[in-house]
Amino acid sequence: MKFFADTAEIDEIRELADTGLLDGVTTNPSLIMKSGRDIKEVTKEICALVDGPVSAETVALDAEGMIAEGRELAKIAENIAIKVPLTWAGIKACKVLSGEGRMVNVTLCFSANQAILAAKAGATFISPFIGRLDDINLDGMELIEDIRTIYDNYGFETQILAASIRSVNHIADSARVGADVITAPPAVIKKMVAHPLTDKGLDAFLADWGKTGQKIL
Ligand code: G3P
Q1: Nearest to residue 147, comparing CAs of 165, 125, 121?
Q2: What is the model's pTM?
């Protein structure tokens, strides 16, 4: 399973990249707005920190506009994945951009039918938004499961990128049903390590070790 950080905050990305566990980054217009940075400048910095795909999102509503913006964003670095929304225009743009050999992330996916269209259009990634489905009392994880089944039925190579992840449970559940990638806020990824029994066990081991009077180094 690949880990992407869902943020445009350079410090957060650097901290995770330093662990060697970060496989990519996803951004969107809201995250760029929150960062307060220029999209091209901050995206270039992110691409220099992370070897894997860095998603940068187009904002045009028509296919021609998305294609032009996608080509412009792709100039930032080799590892840009162009993000387009799951509309007919986005699907058309995905087909053209993926045909040019570019990585494309089709975002704002909320149904299996939408995911089928993205795969047929050659998307590198499909981004189903788990948290936003859960927000309206639908089952985000069921959507990931459906897409997994459908993609496996037909051998689609589009990677399922579980997005809108809000909790550590979303991460384990996404892994359980076979998502290829999760993108999550760094704060959520960092919480994955936490377990009270780990802390308790470590305290007990260190207390006993102290009683031995030994040193390893
Ligand atoms: O990658 C998409 C993600 O940023 C959306 O998350 O929490 O705004 O639904 P959220």
Answers
A1: 125
A2: 0.96
